Structure prediction request, 419 residues.
Amino acid sequence: MHAITSPPTPLPPLPSADGVWEHLRPMPGALADAAIQATDISLVVQQGQIAWIGATSALPATYADLPRFNGGGALLTPGLVDCHTHLVYGGQRSNEFAMRLAGASYEAVAQAGGGIVASVRATREADEDTLFALAAGRLEALLAEGVCAIEIKSGYGLALEHERKQLRVARRLGEAYGVTVRTTFLGAHALPPEYAHRSQDYIDLVCQQMLPTLADEGLVDAVDVFCERIGFSLAQTEQVFQAAKALGLPVKLHAEQLSDMGGAAVAARYGALSCDHIEHLSDEGIAAMKQAGTVAVLLPGAYYTLRDTHLPPIQALRDAGVPMAVSTDHNPGTSPALSLLLMANMACTLFRLTVPEALAGITCHAARALGLQETHGTLGVGRPANFVLWNVADAAELAYWFGHRPVRAVVRQGRIATR
Ligand code: NIG
Ligand code: FE
Prediction:
């Protein structure tokens, strides 16, 4: 990989979106205030926040002199939320794609020295500016499609300085691009080679040194674990959750992706924001998640890439009323996906979500999976102005097209990001 030595150039400031955005057609479920029934609505942005929202015919006269942006009947959605990504890493793993096509399983690739630890090597070798530049390109693809909030995990450093590097890059991306970034510490993603056969020593390091240090540096918004046969045990997962709890940090879990480890129920006991993947989730896991208000994060990109055939229990989650989010799980191994709309499409075609479920999955439920439901994922007064105007006749088109980006305009953090 070639090194980028100069620091990333600051991006030019984006134009302010302050003014009246009129003649918009809200996607069903887009507005925090369900009492607003109008199909022609306007939205007032002042100082980067939504100051008013309602029927265009009811726009208060006080806003009459503000700049006007005519939406021309465009579909309006909240800014999209990508609630599970591993966006910051060095290298890429197309070689494993070939290995799997030749018949190797994800677990076999990992056992052969590939998998997560292959990305760990490349990430450790890269400096912070290189990682920033690599991740910035990926982030730009997601932002162009209307993403206004994104979760970024660590977990390819697996040592204090390298996990720090990933999390710092995540924070810098948020500042440089004016996008809400939630960082998740995933030190318990895989066993680093220097801890081979000493997984308990590594988990002790994660809990006693890495997590408290990085939390103290303000780099950690949530804590995650890869609880799996090829990841960490249930007891180790719980140890990390206890360390998170002691620091007042919310938890999430890579749960029941390849087998039913019972991780979701444990995560729910710790009030987890979300349990993610969950192809092998049990009825007990579902009941525990429902009780705790934990979001089920569906990751069709990983399911597709691994040519998995074990579907997550969608109907049981639906029957139980567990909110379902949909995310890219962008990572170099199992989901090199850079389109959240494609994930909505795949959640419908592969997992049989309804279109409204898939659209809620990339907006309001994704926001909930990050603990951002009061500010993101639906549109309401007092929230930051994050919204997207779409060139579509029907909201269903957002999950229908693939390889197409029908964006008309993106307003992100009160700035016109795409027009
Ligand atoms: O979410 N399951 C573990 N973590 C990632 C895969 C990471 C990798 O293979 O690099 C996931 O699918
Ligand atoms: Fe993941």
The pocket of fe (iii) ion (ligand 2) is lined by residues 84, 86, 254, 329, 331 (CB under 6 Å).
